[in-house]
Structures are given as structure tokens and as C-alpha cells.
Specification:
Radius of gyration: 20 Å
Distance between the termini: 35 Å
Strand content: 5-15%
Low-confidence stretches: none
Shape: globular
Helix content: 40-55%
Order of helices and strands: EEHHEHEHHEEEEHHHHHHHHHH
Bound molecules: fe (iii) ion
Length: 393
Amino acid sequence: MARFTLPRDLYYGKDALAELKNLSGKKAIIVTGGSSMRKGGFLKLVEDYLKEAGMEVTLFEGVEPDPSVETVMKGAQAMTDFQPDWIVAIGGGSPIDAAKAMWAFYEYPDTTFEALCIPFNFPKLRTKAKFCAIPSTSGTATEVTAFSVITDYAKGIKYPLADYEITPDVAIVDPALVETLPPVQVAYTGMDALTHAIEAYVSTLNSPFTDPLAIKAIEMVFDYLPASYKGDMEAREQMHYAQCLAGQAFTNALLGIVHSMAHKTGAAFSTGHIPHGCANAIYLPYVIKYNAHDKVAFARYADIARRIGLAQGSDKACVNALIEKIEEFNRLLGIPKTIKEFGVKEDEFLAKVKDIATNAVADACTGSNPRAIDPEQMEKLYKCTFYGTEVDF
Ligand code: FE
């Protein structure tokens, strides 16, 4: 038996935000991040639409990037005080992720992060409130996924929360919210979305339900990302949908070791943070070469190239065409070919790579990767992504 879960309703397109007028409820709390939604006028719009729906509205603002346990507890307290029957999260991945965790603590004040981070072990939500997510970036697709990441800065750990209970009830994918994204963020988040779709397609949990979503997302990223990067707003809109489709695929098929590797190197080096989407973009071609040694994965990668019309002919020609296309996109978007080129120092990399490799193997995303990997192989793979050498093992 398997399960496939998505939000109950997904509103998309120009003015999709106005659908908030049609939510039925008594009280809504809006959870958001810094000031960009307020400056862009979207926060006011959301508030007005919810009031038009006849709801009493309160705000919880200031969720930081990589939201903390403290912020989640504060938000949950605000919910307990206000007793909303709708939680409306608007912004990048962080406020939406934070609101998902606040929701769990609002409904179950006595639960703990230790309990919640056991995968797919959440108590039943929706006894107090429903959840609406409105993304203002194109990449994480948290508006449709069962995932949230919360950081305990005091303990230095991240709690990855995963359960279909936190899949939002309503997602509003309105392209107006991504019009002002800076190009570098368009590039990184676009490649994150591509990675989600490709990893979902070759995941051991791929299915007839997730495959069409993944393939369409890959096709759309290849069609629209370069123009979106250059500021074409029609393409930007299509990318907003593509990342959402990729999210629908990976929330059900899960991911693979590109994400395991990116998770463990994001904050590992003193030379600076490697943005999630950038790390994924760098690792993706190397991981395809590693996974392609597995017969099933090899055929699945070839299938991607064939189904989106990238190449025909032998499986080998098709897999090569897919890798070349990704490398071409990385060049076009100004993404380095190696983490050395990104700026990671060799001595620091070599000093840390063994531990990073061990941690990456233990990451939650490794389990659904199509080819098994041990810490030694992971170390070799990281070295390929540092030196730009061939993956021949
Ligand atoms: Fe990602």
C-alpha cells in the first residue's frame, strides 16, 4: 500500500490571492517573515481579503530565515491566545515551514520536537484550524509538501518534520508574488525545483502518480528557467507552477542524495553559506553519473531525456544529453562547476569531508536514492564535486 497526498485545493494564476475571500471561518492568523510581503502590499491584500471573508484577523510577523524553535513556540502561543480556525502562511519557505510547526504545537501544546521529528508520526491536525500556504519564492514548494525544517540553535540541530498531516489544505500559487525575485534567487530556486523533479522521478518511491508531475516539471524548467532568469514575467509565472508541480512529485516520491549532500554542506565551511539551490545544481550532474551505475536508475534518467524530447537513441546517449543539458544550464545561470570554484578552501574541505560524508549518508533523503551509498563512496563523490573529476565508481 502506498499513499499520495496533496492539498485539497490549489488556486493558481493572476489574482489567485483573491480566493482568500472565499475561505469560510471565524478567525485567521497570518504568519509571515521579514518585511517584503508588507512592502509589496501583499500582506495588506491578504488581510483585506480575509476580512472580506468575514474573519477576524491577527498577524504574526518576523519569522526569520531558517526558523528557530523559539519562533515556533512564540507563534504557537499567539495561536493559543487568539484561537484561529485558519492559519494563513505567506512568504518564502521559512514562514510557511515555521507556521506548519506552530500549527502542530497549537493543536497539541504538550507535544515535543523530539516526537514530531519521528517521520510520519504526527497526531491528527485540523481539530482546531486549517492551513493555507501562499509562497513568495519559486523553489521549496512547501505550499504543497509534507515537510518543514526547524532549527534548534542552542543545540545546533535541525529538526526535519515530515508528515502528510502538515500538507496544507489550501495552496495559493499567485505569480504576482514572485515578480520581484532577484535573478540569482531565480537561478538557485529554479535549479532546486529541477533537482526535486529529477530526484523524485528516479527515487525508489517513484510511482505512476508522481511520474507525470515530475516529467512536466522538468520539461517546464528547461523551457522557462532561462527566460525567467532574464526577467521575462510570463516565464517567471510558468516557473512558479513548475516548482509547485515538482513539489507535488517529491512530497510523495521523496528525494535522493543530491539533497543529502546539499543539506550537509550548506553551513559546513568558514568561507560562507552555500545556498541550497546552488549546492543542488553543482551536485546534480555528479550524482546522476554515480546513480547511473544502477541499471534501473540509468533507464529512468534516459527516460527523462526521451520523454521531454531532449534526445532519442540509446540509453547512454539520452543520459549524456540530460547531464549536458544540466551543465549547460549551470553555465548559463552562473553556477560554478565545483564547490572549489564556489570558494570552499581545499585544506578545510579535506579536513571536514569525512565527517560530512558520514552525515550525508545518514540524511533522511538517502533512503529513497536509487543507488545505495556508503560513507567511503560518499567521500569519493564529494571529492569529485570539489575537484571536478569523473565519477568512475
Ligand atoms: Fe530542495
